Amino acid sequence: MNIVAQMETLAPAVGLNIPKPANLPPATLQSFAKQLAGGISWFLGKVKVQSARKTLRLCENLALGDKRFVAVIQVENERFLIGGAAGSISLLTRLEQTPNFSDSLQNKLKEEAAR
Fold first, then answer.
1. How far apart are alpha carbons 3 and 6 in whole angstroms?
2. What is the residue range of 26's domain?
3. Residue 32 lies in a domain
4. Which of 10, 27, 65, 76 places its Cα 20 to 30 Å from the Cα of 84?
């Protein structure tokens, strides 16, 4: 079964209405079907689906020159300070979890209101 026949068979199942041209030779229809299939394949290759949540994130980095750096990375809810050079990366320390500014401000306001 050729591509055109397959498309005509599948068209009703996916809700496509493919009109049959009266005076086009079958070779032209096959060429069109191949180009259409190639275009759809290209488009699907370009569409990227991202995960709902990233688990690894670069928070900050600082270049130290001579291909050296330090960086803070976050893996899920934990943060780490790492250092790197031209051929290596090292874990310097695990950082303590610090409350964000908004939470700290809310807590301070609640303490002041309680006085």
1. 5
2. 3-45
3. yes
4. 76
pLDDT at 25 over 80: no
Q: Is residue 105 part of a domain?
A: no
* Number of other CB atoms surrounding residue 79 within 10 Å: 18
Report pTM.
0.42
Distance between CA atoms of 58 and 79, rounded to whole angstroms? 10
Query: Does residue 73 contact residue 56 with C-beta atoms inside 8 Å?
Result: yes
Q: Give the C-alpha separation, 28 to 34, whole Å.
A: 10
SS3 content of the chain, % helix, strand, coil (to 5): 40, 30, 30
Total count of residues recorded for the chain: 115
- pLDDT cut 90: percent of the chain above it: 19
Between 108 and 15, the more confident residue is 108
Place of tokens 């809310």: 106
Q: Is the pLDDT of residue 21 over 60?
A: no
Interhelix angle 3-14/26-46, rounded to 10 degrees, is 60
For the record, the structure tokens of 79 come out as 């943060």
Count of structural domains, the chain: 2
